[in-house]
Design brief:
By secondary structure, the protein is mostly helical. It has 6 helices and no strands. The chain has one domain.
């Protein structure tokens, strides 16, 4: 079962509230712990743990597509090899979702520079 598209923003917000997902390298999160997190997400969103993780991977890929011009150093996750091989349908989905999701995804997936207020 796939994530209900109406719950996409809620899914992203839950990821934002779970930095072990999007800062896993910084926190040294184990695969076992990630599996537990994805199981919780699966239960929360009525999908499997595997589907929850795939949804996150898709959002990472989608975000990368939305920011094609950004250097790889700007991203928390490396560039997927298949970003450039998206078909027209993938491109249309990315374009359509960009105005709704880009800001939230930028916050999670782009490396930001510290500001005076964040120090």
């Amino acid at each position: 079962m796939m994530l209900d598209p109406r719950k996409m923003e809620e899914f992203i917000e839950q990821v934002r509230l779970t930095p072990a997902i999007w800062r896993k390298k910084e926190f040294g999160v184990s695969r076992e712990h990630l599996n537990e997190i994805w199981a919780h997400f699966g239960h929360t969103f009525d999908i499997s743990a595997e589907e929850a993780e795939k949804q996150w991977e898709y959002l990472i890929r989608l975000h990368r597509f939305m920011n094609k011009e950004a250097s790889k150093e700007k991203f928390r996750f490396g560039k997927s090899e298949d970003v450039d091989s998206w078909n027209d349908a993938d491109s249309s989905v990315a374009d359509a979702l960009s105005s709704f999701l880009k800001t939230s995804l930028d916050e999670l997936l782009l490396v930001s520079e510290p500001t005076e207020t964040s120090v």
